[in-house]
């Protein structure tokens, strides 16, 4: 018989069964088999399970959106993401702050964080990095942060302009750019606070200074409520 | 003519959260998939967030299937949406739903990760080979070429118009026979067959001209 039609050869390349007559011809025809083999190369390159049509959806981890928002500069949030997800990880469910008497627990809160070292003798040491702290959407807090080195120790000075809080306190963190990993630096107040940086923290890995509002609830993790943020530059 | 790839729709896939039943009253207030696609194309930032909400699950599902859960899969999912957004003018709403386009972008990103791994492997191997004063290099050149050809052919698929692209994607990625494709798309059997032939011949030419496997 005559050779298989080009259409049949293409279907054979896709491993579709051919009509008996074509299949028989193909089995014995060198030229047609060569055609099928050459057409099949692209099938073998692309028709692999990893590229196959989507199967079961897998929910992406919650922090992925933050990276997309950061890279695209888009500030809208997906409807089913918590509103702060683009900028701050929520490590625990949002909840109402406990109405505790601040006077009773203030000491505990400071004790749980780092102890603020307030210096009377003004700035000293060498400035190794600075960051402007910009208010996050809807927040009324801003300021400046400076990392200084003095006698082999590093200090973080935060000059914060923010409303005073009745039922919580401001806490400073160093974040990785994806806002997933963070180092707690300590509690700050409006105005000037100097804190020792935990030794060994790599500022290149944790370049983002983040100021959060922490409720007085005894939970030492980030509240997920950030009010100001900025990147350290040298 | 529009060829849809039969991707799961909204109710089947919004990724685990925010699943809304079709009968809830607020459903009618939500933009439909086509509207999200058009606004995405037009650069409406909310449409990116909505597209993520609806289709990040299927994109991430593909990424996890290719690489397992972890950094590579997460990177693919992020890069898919970032690159879809920056390249949104390449999306043609009249040629298919945004979800299908995102899946196509995701395939590129998966191939990119393969290529990156391959480069890293080559660099690592080159170091070893140098250290051993080059015994017999190139043992894995076949894998290397396959990865390069995948990137090449995915790019060629991007250049296909519809319905050719939809047809070949159903054959390659949904493993449908030509008669199933005809049924799915409503196109005549003969049309499907001749598009498949032309596309396979086009891809063959591409491989013969620029393919890595045949040149090594």
Describe the structure.
The complex is a heterodimer of chains A (234) and B (216). Chain A is α+β, with helices and mostly antiparallel strands. Chain A contains 5 helices and 8 strands. Chain A has helices at 6-13, 20-28, 30-46, 64-72, 102-112, and strands at residues 126-135, 142-150, 153-161, 168-175, 182-188, 191-196, 208-215, 226-231. In chain A, strand 4 (168-175) and strand 5 form a beta hairpin. In chain A, helix 1 packs across helix 3. The longest helix of chain A is centred in the N-terminal third of the chain and has 17 residues, at 30-46. Mean pLDDT of chain A is 79; it is low at 82-122. Chain B is mostly helical and 216 residues long. Chain B folds into 2 domains: 10-113, RNA polymerase sigma factor, region 2, helix turn helix motif (Rna Polymerase Sigma Factor, Chain: A); 155-216, Winged helix-like DNA-binding domain superfamily/Winged helix DNA-binding domain (Arc Repressor Mutant, subunit A), CATH 1.10.10.10. Chain B contains 8 helices and no strands. Chain B has helices at residues 33-42, 45-67, 71-86, 98-131, 141-159, 164-173, 178-185, 189-210. The longest helix of chain B is centred in the middle third of the chain and has 34 residues, at 98-131. Chain B is globular, with a radius of gyration of 20 Å. The interface between A and B is large, with 43 and 66 residues.
